[in-house]
Design goal:
By secondary structure, the chain is α+β, with helices and mostly antiparallel strands. It has 5 helices and 5 strands. The longest helix is centred in the N-terminal third of the chain and has 131 residues. 14% of the residues are buried.
Length: 255
């Protein structure tokens, strides 16, 4: 009987010992799990923080990307506008340069025409001096060659309109100059100091009639003009550049 009790006590002791061991192991396991859970929580927290940071960074990058897209779009629009403006400006400059070149060419033609007229006037002046002799009054004004002589020489006085013998020879030589230069416009100008132009017109007509008898000198080329001589009397024959042709040329160039 004592033996049974002893065995029972021993069994119970062993049972309590086994339960205590299991409890200790269970507590240890719980501690391990709590440590693991805590570690996992820390990992989850770090991962969450990293994910949030990454999400914020992604949001920031998306905003920056959107701003860059907008900036690129604006830049592209500005470049397109600049290209159009630059093209228009280039076209405007090219048109201005072309217009300037055209005007320079037109002005060069006019300048060359004036220079040519002056050169021709010098040639006629030289020929006139060689042809008409030292007694003739010859000059150049504004590209025109002026040939004159006194009323005494042409008519033997200032009260008649009949050409003298010397005058006819003189006018024949003037006629040769007129024929040699068909591009020149011819005017016969009567200079008067009294204001009574009847005799002056008759004298100019006498000169014109004689010149028109020379072959190559048509009456249509001869223009008569009576004007105040400003204390000078006489007949002035002007060989001028043809202003009508010149103006027609200018009008044609500046259309």
């Amino acid at each position: 009987m004592l033996r049974k009790i002893t065995l029972l006590i021993l069994f119970i002791g062993l049972l309590f010992t086994a339960q205590a061991q299991k409890k200790r192991e269970l507590l240890e396991k719980i501690d391990e799990l709590e440590i693991t859970i805590s570690s996992l929580n820390d990992s989850v927290s770090r991962a969450t923080r990293k994910a949030n940071a990454d999400a914020s960074r992604i949001t920031l990058l998306e905003e920056e990307n959107t701003e860059l897209k907008d900036a690129n779009q604006t830049l592209l629009q500005n470049l397109t506008s600049f290209s159009k403006v630059s093209k228009q400006s280039s076209e405007t400059v090219n048109k201005a340069l072309a217009s300037l070149k055209e005007k320079e060419q037109q002005l060069r033609i006019i300048t060359d025409t004036f220079s040519k007229n002056d050169s021709i006037a010098i040639v006629i002046l030289t020929q006139a001096k060689q042809t008409l002799g030292p007694d003739a009054k010859i000059g150049v004004s504004n590209g025109s060659v002026l040939i004159s002589n006194s009323l005494d020489f042409l008519f033997g006085g200032d009260t008649t309109a009949v050409l003298s013998e010397g005058a006819t020879e003189f006018l024949d030589k003037v006629g040769q100059l007129i024929v040699a230069h068909p591009e020149r416009a011819i005017s016969i100008e009567g200079l008067n100091i009294t204001g009574e132009f009847d005799l002056t017109y008759t004298q100019m007509l006498a000169v014109a009639n004689h010149l028109s008898t020379i072959e190559g000198v048509t009456p249509e080329r001869l223009q008569l003009l009576a004007r105040d001589g400003n204390f000078k009397e006489g007949i002035l024959i002007r060989l001028a550049s043809d202003s009508n042709k010149f103006y027609e040329m200018v009008k044609g160039e500046f259309k």
